[in-house]
Specification:
Layout: H1 23-38, E1 44-49, E2 52-57, E3 68-75, H2 80-88, H3 90-96, E4 100-108, E5 113-120, E6 130-139, E7 148-154, E8 166-167, E9 169-180, E10 183-193, H4 200-209, H5 213-224, E11 229-231, E12 242-248, E13 256-261, E14 267-271, E15 282-288, E16 297-301, E17 306-311, E18 318-325
Parallel strand pairs: 6-8
Antiparallel strand pairs: 1-2, 2-3, 3-10, 4-5, 5-6, 6-7, 7-9, 9-10, 11-14, 12-13, 13-18, 14-17, 15-18, 16-17
Helix pairs in contact: 3-5
Length: 328
């Protein structure tokens, strides 16, 4: 049985939105990420490789552990809303991270906060696979081209460790997206304990490989474009709709899905890449849960990169929107 079969179909909590139970852990991680973003002091500059500036900093009390690592690159001609899902969406990460097996939300507390589980393959055939679980928050996404900070940290979510895996501990992980004119500076910071025995030469290699991931994500964007993403309606800071799950196929078919539960009067948009990923346009389909027809949600493609979603029905419906590259 695949370790990815435990994904909840509808991860949103029953009384969504609600304050997440891990706010203290998130705030602590966020403060640490902001601190590491603010300066390169005490970091060792590892130089630039393929347009990525790499830094690392060892903890003197744990000289054999994995360093705090930081990698930065500038992605040309993009907005933060467009580059964020290239780094965070499971199907996109599988394109740029060969070690990544997959992952999913466990519980979704609001539009931007959720608990999660994920796993990576073993290293070099001599290190067991690792899994990790925790909570994540995205600040600033969905509002256009503005600063975005995504923070993750390990918490006890109660999700079991799969057979043959060792649970890693993410002290803090940050993805920072800062607009710079027509470009975006992307920085990834990670403090991680892999736990178990890891050869020192592999630890040193990971200190270079992990921060280099920002360049791999950048190159995937340059090659295939960005996947669709949710954007709030002009003038709104959130939506009444209950966001559930979203992903894109890591294969060439580029099938994207977005599942949500409607509420009367809710509106939002799905923005797709009409210049590259879906340059031929999209084939759009809408389906209800368990093949139930959708009667209270209007989904309209404007043909220029935006799908408008309007929930007018009096009864909530769970709806999945599917996009594929047009075959015509």
């Amino acid at each position: 049985m695949s370790i990815l079969t435990g994904a909840p179909e509808l991860p949103a909590v029953p009384n969504y939105p609600q304050p997440n139970p891990y706010q203290e852990e998130l705030e602590k991680a966020r403060q640490q990420v902001r601190k590491e973003l603010a300066t390169d002091e005490d970091y060792k500059d590892m130089g630039e490789n393929a347009g990525v500036r790499i830094f690392k900093k060892y903890n003197p009390s744990d000289p054999d552990g994995l360093a705090i690592v930081k990698g930065s690159t500038v992605v040309k001609n993009v907005t933060t809303d467009a580059i964020v899902p290239c780094t965070q969406m499971v199907g996109m990460r599988k394109r740029w991270d060969p070690q990544y097996v997959g992952g999913f939300m466990l519980e979704r507390y609001s539009t931007h906060v959720f608990s999660f589980w994920g796993a990576v393959r073993g290293f070099a055939g001599i290190v067991d696979p690792r899994d990790f679980t925790g909570v994540a928050e995205a600040q600033g996404s969905g509002h256009g081209n503005r600063e975005v900070l995504i923070v993750q940290t390990s918490t006890d979510t109660g999700y079991p460790v799969p057979k043959g895996h060792i649970r890693a501990t993410v002290m803090y992980s940050g993805w920072h997206f800062l607009p710079q004119g027509n470009d975006v500076k992307v920085t990834h910071i990670l403090k991680l304990a892999l736990n178990g025995k890891i050869p020192k030469n592999l630890v040193r290699a990971l200190a270079k490989d992990i921060p280099a991931c920002v360049g791999h994500a950048r190159d995937v964007f340059y090659k295939v474009g960005h996947p669709p993403y949710a954007k709030f309606v002009e003038g709104q800071t959130d939506t009444e709709a209950i966001f559930q799950t979203t992903d894109i196929s890591p294969d060439k078919d580029l099938e994207y899905f977005f599942t949500f539960t409607s509420r009367p009067g809710a509106q939002f948009n799905l923005v797709y890449d009409a210049q590259k990923m879906y340059a031929r346009g999209i084939d759009l389909s809408v389906r209800g849960r368990d093949t139930i027809d959708v009667t209270g949600v209007e989904v309209v493609d404007d043909g220029n990169g935006t799908v408008h979603v309007n929930c007018f029905g009096p009864v909530p419906e769970t709806v999945t929107i599917v996009m594929r590259p047009s075959e015509t």
